[in-house]
Amino acid sequence: MSDFGELGAGLPEANDELVDRKILSPNHDERKLPISMVVIHYTEMEDKGFAIERLCDPEAKVSANYLIGKGGEVVRLVPEDKRAWHAGVSYWRGIKDVNSASIGIELDHPGHKYGYCEFPDAQFEALVPLVSRIVKQYDIPRANVVGHSDVAPARKIDPGELFPWDRLAEYGLCLPRPKKLERGDPFDNDASFYLALERFGYDITDGHKAVEAFQRRWRPEKINGEIDGEVRAILFQLLLDRDRGHTR
Ligand SMILES: [Zn+2]
Description:
This protein is of the alpha/beta class.
């Protein structure tokens, strides 16, 4: 809340400190849910200019709250109190209208289509303070800072296996990949694994794709959609940590 209350109208918008440029995309509407998530994307375009054009094109009907350039420029396209159109048909931990519940951040990146590569440091260094400010302001749990592939596993693979989740986790801004895995295997069969995967947050309508998305995020070294021992152990550990209150 602004100290100025109603009188704050007309003052510079809050949260402008980290924003280098503002371009208003017409592709937004009203939020129907409080903000409780951050969804990270890549643009999968060769050029940031084209990406901005597309994210502001009324015909394309897509947008994001923010776009971060390769050099770290932060562009706000949709104010945070508005619902940007970045997630499409999506699901996470019971939420079906992910656009209403999330802040969408696009990273200027060629994606898998135009030569998949590491995310530039300058871009990551601009992402950290932005996500940090957002999670503090809206009290967003770390488990709700996710990739597009986590919320739309059947359709999307961005930001992909090279996105540095562990580096983001070092700042306390998302869950880290579990390092130590407990012994024991609680899943009697694939059905119980899928139920647990759904409890963790994923849409399991397409089981194979859901496992692929899980692997992309939590074990990027091997993405094949198969439920193997390591994948089971990682999911078990993530749920244990959450149930014990180690993660939120
Ligand atoms: Zn995306």
